[in-house]
Amino acid sequence: MSALTPAQSLWLFIAVALLTSLLLLFFARKKLGVALKQRQIRRAVKRLGPKVHQGLLVPDGIDGVVAADYVVLTHKGILLITLNWFDGNIFGGKDTDQWTQMLRGSSHRFTNPLHEIHLLCATVKSLVPAIPVSGIVLFAGDCTFPKDKPEGACLLSDLPKQRRKQVVPSSYELTWDLLLTKAKMLSFH
């Protein structure tokens, strides 16, 4: 075997460095995509109301907890948001127990996420009965609802593109603080 010339060594080094960089980028693209999507979600959620809290756990009253990925104070009350990371086509109705994800020719059944958000809303409402509480399930993955999208389910594209001017009643502000105080011991963020 003959030794490489300095120019050949340089080109070999450049080729190996380029190939290594491409491999790292290939394997890191999914993590980068998820990080970018999480950033988009945070920005979109912050446009929903003047106060946002990420990661809230509240006791469910029967030795367990229920979780909200985001809690938003709006002029209409408290909005609870849970995230679902599904890709593909999603089929389900507000009253059905099981929904279906169709992806690459196969199907996967999962529990209706609207049941969980309704339980979460009822639990939070029991902690702060003086304020309206509502909730949505935000489908954050690359998915669509080819048939009707049930009320309470939404995609990132359904959220407003700009922050709306909102006047939040002072009583809502006090209730917001009370909710965060009650849930503080169990908060996961």
UniProtKB/TrEMBL annotation:
Q: Does the keyword Transmembrane helix apply?
A: yes
**Tree of life domain:** Bacteria
Instruction: Name the Pfam families for this protein.
Output: NERD
Q: Which UniProt keywords apply?
A: Membrane, Transmembrane, Transmembrane helix
| Residue intervals of the NERD domain | 33-146
**Which residues are listed as membrane-spanning?**
6-28
Q: Which InterPro entries match?
A: NERD (IPR011528)
This protein is called what? NERD domain-containing protein
**Species per Swiss-Prot/TrEMBL record:** Sedimenticola thiotaurini
